């Protein structure tokens, strides 16, 4: 998965929302929201679907007269970039009509079917999914082709990386520790294939963007990001 490009697209979408308030000629909330939606859709491209922007503060439309918009929530059900499809859900707080905001955050969700096409070689034949709390990998492993489901935790590491850690496996209806499974004949290399693995993102993210969390959600792997005030103050000039 091209994480850097995914995040850059999200940042551009947020910047488009901020810039959408710059005209300050929309005195009605509906019109202001439509302008923001149009700006985000333009940034995300024609392939984006379910694009929506919402001004969530009371009397947000009238607040544009004072140079403020308040909180803007944006979402897109599907955005496609460089062969990867993902959903975006983001919020900007303290948005002003001069193209700035006080704070912001976003969640990018990559579906499990998309992840399946981008798994590393050792687990490429396994199917990703979730049991409600873990990132699961299911499929035959080892020389005997035993079907297993590996339960992994996902988290944001303190240094800005994404860490995937195998916790246990389900085999024939039983849940076992990984070292119990790897003690079986033909399974001794299985643990090495699984990890744990950490993908460093710190050097790949734009300045002012920080990975804050990761979750195996119902619809896919969800990565959460925060945006610094310095980045949001200048985001009105960002390019897609």
From TrEMBL:
Q: Which domain of life is it from?
A: Bacteria
- The UniProt record lists the keyword Signal: yes
- InterPro entries from the entry? TAT_signal (IPR006311)
Q: Name the UniProt key words of this record, in alphabetical order.
A: Signal
Signal peptide span per the entry? 1-26
* The name this protein goes by in its record: DUF2993 domain-containing protein
């Amino acid at each position: 998965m091209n994480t850097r490009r995914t995040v850059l697209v999200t940042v551009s979408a947020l910047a488009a929302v901020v810039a959408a308030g710059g005209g300050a000629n929309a005195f009605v909330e509906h019109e202001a929201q439509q302008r923001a939606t149009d700006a985000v859709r333009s940034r995300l491209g024609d392939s984006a679907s379910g694009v929506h922007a919402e001004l969530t503060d009371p009397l947000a439309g009238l607040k544009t007269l004072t140079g403020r918009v308040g909180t803007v929530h944006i979402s897109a059900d599907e955005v496609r970039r460089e062969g990867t499809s993902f959903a975006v859900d983001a919020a900007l707080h303290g948005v002003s009509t001069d193209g700035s905001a006080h704070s912001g955050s976003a969640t990018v969700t990559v579906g499990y079917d998309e992840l399946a096409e981008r798994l590393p070689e050792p687990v490429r034949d396994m199917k990703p999914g979730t049991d409600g709390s873990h990132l699961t990998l299911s499929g035959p492993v080892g020389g005997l082709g035993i079907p297993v489901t590996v339960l992994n935790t996902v988290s944001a590491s303190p240094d800005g990386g994404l860490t995937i850690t195998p916790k246990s496996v389900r085999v024939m209806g039983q849940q076992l520790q990984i070292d119990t499974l790897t003690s079986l004949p033909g399974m001794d290399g299985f643990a090495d294939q699984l990890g744990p693995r950490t993908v460093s993102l710190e050097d790949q993210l734009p300045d002012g963007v920080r990975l804050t969390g990761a979750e195996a959600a119902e619809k896919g792997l969800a990565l959460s990001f925060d945006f610094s005030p310095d980045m949001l103050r200048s985001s009105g000039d960002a390019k897609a």
